[in-house]
């Protein structure tokens, strides 16, 4: 993957930096807030090789890339900064009013921005806790071991001090002072405040106002609200502070205003919401396998809409408060494996070589927790495999719920993260999760096989076969080799002539369709290479077949896989049956646009009845229209 090229193409097709209000990314998606969606070329973005799909949801344009999204995002930031620096429309950018998101979309956006960046350290810490469980289960350490206690401390640190991490990410999201935000977290977790709460006191007062004493370790809501308020207070404090004393007066005013509101209002509010969240978790635990099955059923739809990351704050809070998750990660695991099972089934059942390759690679990616290639590239595209995923994952979710599969660490569920499901029961819990994985994969695979799907036509192969079959079916009254008139084929394009063996397309490179040559075009025009008649034009306009006045059958095929463009960027100048003279324009194509979409424009020119010409001679190198290239 050329991350720089992909980023530049994406920036171009979303309308440039002046059309972007904000940009971020999650584990697999580039997430953009777009000012004017009419300027976004969604179709062009979808045709990029490194893009698995797009989703326009809740005022956010999401580009599904996969596990390399972070590298693409970095290049995207660089490209956007360069574009903004040279853009003459910066004034317009600042004056435009971005499209307002609804309240729910804004809340989801804030939560994801606060939690997604800290997932790696949470996952790493969680795996340390899993390691502790494994070491105890294997008898390597005892519960009283000081080594185990230190390891547990390492694993618990991020959860206990979660407000610090959320303070930093929230400050970045709300574009405010990072250090002042972390001061707010320090106030929440101050030992004296924690001690007052631990001693049994339930409340105190601040300047006569009642202040409820609570434990804020592992709490996220109070600090998010505090940093949000600070993003408004800090600029006001900055304006009110004289330059001579601004260095201390601004943060002082900010702390004095925000901290009391945080402790008096936001803290109890967070505790209130946390209480309802605890009840929600208890209900899910009570429902058991039903909750896992229902979540497994709806999870693929959350991925499609891009709202699945809204579950991340719930999961993190669940681990911080309960220490385990019996539903969300478990259902995510069976869904990921079901996506893999469906993709592998399609790969084995399809006769389309391209789909076979996509299915295999997407299936492997799903096993390792990256499901978008399978979801968008295979299962959702073919429809019935997606139905099989829903059935298989729902049934496997029931199996996981009945056997009590539970996640003890927040790591993306996949075959390599199965140890996160090992609990106090020991390795028997690993047996149950493996059973759930096998159930999900096998059932989904079987349902795909039984339901079937409409096998996609290998369009490129069909296009070539249609052209050659039509040529072969023409009544050309093939004459014996010795009576064949000598032919001279002029170059139909301007560019560099290369041998067919150098073409990155097996059908042409092996000369299975006939001998000939290829041209790497420098201009987007194709002309007639001899006097003759147009006998075939592909429905996608990228290929033309002619027969010369002396009986030579010639196929001109512009580009590799350009059939996928569905005729876009190609304009024909002739119709089937037209008589043409050497040099007449056959078609024009937008060379730069097609190239920018990632297509190889190497054009193959093949003599499809080359068995009639045993002594074909070829000239390579740079040519222009009309230069003799092939002689017989």
Question: Can you describe what's shown?
Answer:
The protein is of the alpha+beta class and 632 residues long. It is built from 22 helices and 20 strands. The strands form five sheets. The protein has an eight-stranded antiparallel β-sheet. It has a four-stranded antiparallel β-sheet with strand order 1-2-4-3. The chain has a three-stranded antiparallel β-sheet with strand order 7-20-18, with no helix packed on it. The longest helix has 42 residues, at 246-287. The model is unreliable at 85-98 and 471-482 (pLDDT under 50).
**Beta-strand fraction estimate:** 5-15%
Q: In which order are the strands of the major sheet placed? A: 15-11-12-13-17-9-8-19
Mean pLDDT: 83
Total E-strand runs? 20
Q: What's the shape?
A: elongated
The helix/strand class is alpha+beta
Helical residues, percent: 40-55%
Largest sheet: 8 strands, antiparallel
Domain PTS EIIC type-1: 109-463
Membrane topology: Multi-pass membrane protein
Active site: 26
Transmembrane segments: 110-138, 150-171, 178-196, 216-235, 247-267, 287-315, 327-348, 360-379, 386-410, 430-451
What descriptive keywords fit this protein?
632 residues, eight-stranded antiparallel sheet, 22 helices, 14% strand, transferase, PTS_EIIC_1, transmembrane helix, kinase, protein-phosphocysteine-trehalose phosphotransferase system transporter activity
Short description:
This protein is α+β, with helices and mostly antiparallel strands and 632 residues long.
Secondary-structure topology with pairs:
Elements: H1 3-13, E1 20-25, E2 29-34, H2 42-47, E3 53-57, E4 60-64, H3 69-86, H4 90-95, H5 103-115, H6 119-137, H7 146-160, H8 162-173, H9 178-188, H10 191-198, E5 203-206, E6 209-212, H11 221-240, H12 246-287, H13 289-305, H14 311-321, H15 328-349, H16 353-367, H17 372-382, H18 384-402, H19 428-451, H20 459-473, E7 488-490, E8 495-498, H21 506-509, E9 515-521, E10 525-527, E11 532-537, E12 543-548, E13 553-557, E14 570-572, E15 579-580, E16 585-589, H22 591-596, E17 603-607, E18 617-618, E19 621-623, E20 628-631
Antiparallel strand pairs: 1-2, 2-4, 3-4, 5-6, 7-20, 8-9, 8-19, 9-17, 10-16, 11-12, 11-15, 12-13, 13-17, 14-16, 18-20
Helix pairs in contact: 1-3, 5-8, 6-7, 8-9, 8-11, 9-11, 9-12, 11-12, 13-15, 13-18, 15-16, 15-17, 15-18, 15-19, 16-17, 17-18, 18-19
